[in-house]
Design a protein that fits this description.
The chain is of the alpha/beta class and 427 residues long. Helix 1 runs parallel beside helix 8 and helix 7 packs antiparallel against helix 8. The chain is globular. Strands 3-4-8-7-6-5-9-10 form an eight-stranded mixed sheet. The protein has a two-stranded antiparallel sheet with strand order 1-2. The chain is built from 16 helices and ten strands.
Length: 427
């Protein structure tokens, strides 16, 4: 919707349905990702049917988008940070009357934008996208936000590149550990002051441009004038962050020459640097079967390829394999690398959007079972321990995989879609 608004350049205000409340299981706040992980735990006989049912009946207690900092909530928060949504859009729970008031005010705001002839590109530009990226790093948003912001900026006429994302990540502290990175949820972020409080913290060190205009008719600076953090357990102070660098990192290496993405804030400290043997799968379903079958061992690096924009086609999300690993308590010892993408609910060393993808002949297609893969997230690198000459030999013998879909709209999409490092937009 934001891409369309920017492409058409019409007055626009985003208003979402809002996040659901967190559920409660065994006295602790919980959310959808825990449900998927519980399935993995049951497969591994770590919990019984009664415990699984407890999650099933209680993890999603109301209407709304999932209660953690998953993809829907990430983008609703970032729409607020960009300025195309009103304050509160990202965090006011769906069941609260404040959400109805927000919708009414959005209706008033759009009439004002029409009256003043303020269009989408007046609000969404390089300045506001950079604000959104800074907020992304502070919040620890879904890795999918990289795809979406690349695509939105492309429609707005100033394509971003992955190096810009790392530059902003390098100077922006991570202030929030919402689920799946930590125990807090969207209702907690809302109570702590929401996105506007996060922006106010970032403004203290001039990490955002407060002159950017927003759908409120005011600048970012005017919007955050009265904003403040009400709970420093949920939103850390800019002077005492979770980390000095942002929640997302872009990695490069000989299997990701055009980059790949990891949600660094959701990676266990012991997995930030990891080396292990590749366990190679040419589709997500085969990988899931192997994980549930107990064939993945601590130290392994699961490689899932031919699931990118062209290969999928469509880059389906991979919550099942990542949550299966987490549920089986392997997320602190097993990494996962793919040319596909992850759900915002994924956690662990889940490295996605590998570009070029396997279906385009990317180096990920050349990895063999047992190859040692070296991951170094602090130094933004991911490599397979195979020299260039050997990779070239493998390339000469590479047989192109038959497309999964050969007819209809998805076949056309596969022919026209760009690489994930370009936002997977249609050419």
């Amino acid at each position: 919707m934001v891409m369309a608004a920017v492409r058409m350049n019409i007055p626009a205000v985003v208003v979402s349905g809002g996040p659901m409340m967190a559920g409660t299981v065994c006295g602790q706040e919980t959310s959808l990702s825990k449900m998927f992980e519980a399935v993995g735990a049951r497969k591994a006989n770590m919990i019984d049917d009664k415990e699984l049912l407890e999650y099933e009946e209680n993890c999603c207690p109301s209407c709304g988008s999932c209660s953690g900092m998953y993809t829907a909530n990430s983008m609703n928060c970032l729409c607020e940070a960009i300025g195309i949504a009103l304050p509160g859009n990202g965090t006011i729970p769906a069941v609260m009357s404040g959400r109805i008031a927000l919708a009414k005010h959005a209706g008033m705001a759009i009439m004002d934008l029409v009256k003043r002839d303020v269009k989408a590109r007046d609000i969404i530009n390089e300045k506001s996208i950079r604000n959104a990226l800074a907020c992304d790093m502070a919040l620890g948003c879904s890795s999918n936000s990289v795809l979406h912001l690349l695509a939105i900026s492309n429609e707005a006429g100033f394509p971003l590149d992955l190096k810009t994302i790392n530059e902003i990540s390098a100077r922006t502290p991570n202030l929030c550990h919402l689920a799946p990175a930590g125990p807090t949820h969207m209702q907690d972020l809302n109570a702590a002051g929401g996105v506007q409080a996060v922006l106010a913290e970032l403004a203290k060190k001039k990490l955002i441009d407060t002159t950017a205009i927003t759908a409120t008719g005011k600048t970012v600076g005017e919007n955050i004038k009265s904003a403040s953090v009400k709970d420093y357990n949920t939103i850390k102070s800019i002077d005492a962050p979770y980390s000095q660098t942002g929640g997302i990192a872009i990695l490069w290496g000989n299997i990701a020459k055009n980059g790949c993405v990891v949600k660094r804030s959701a990676v266990a400290p012991e997995m930030l640097v990891h080396s292990g043997p590749a366990r190679v799968f040419d589709c997500e379903d085969d990988a899931i079967a192997s994980i549930y079958g107990g064939q993945i061992k601590p130290g392994d690096v699961v490689v899932i390829r031919y699931e990118g924009p062209k290969g999928g086609p469509g880059m389906r999300e991979m919550l099942n394999p990542t949550s299966a690993l987490a549920g089986m308590k392997l997320d602190k010892s097993v990494a996962l690398i793919t040319d596909g993408r992850f759900s915002g609910a994924s956690r662990g060393a889940s490295i996605g959007h590998v570009a070029p993808e396997a279906a385009e002949g990317g180096e990920i297609a050349l990895i063999k079972e047992g190859d040692i893969i070296d991951i170094d997230i602090p130094n933004n690198s991911v490599n397979v321990r195979v020299d260039d000459k050997q990779l070239q030999e493998r390339r000469s013998k590479l047989v192109a995989k038959e497309p999964n879909i050969k007819t209809g709209w998805l076949a056309r999409y596969a022919r026209l879609v760009s690489s994930s490092d370009k936002g997977a937009v249609l050419k």
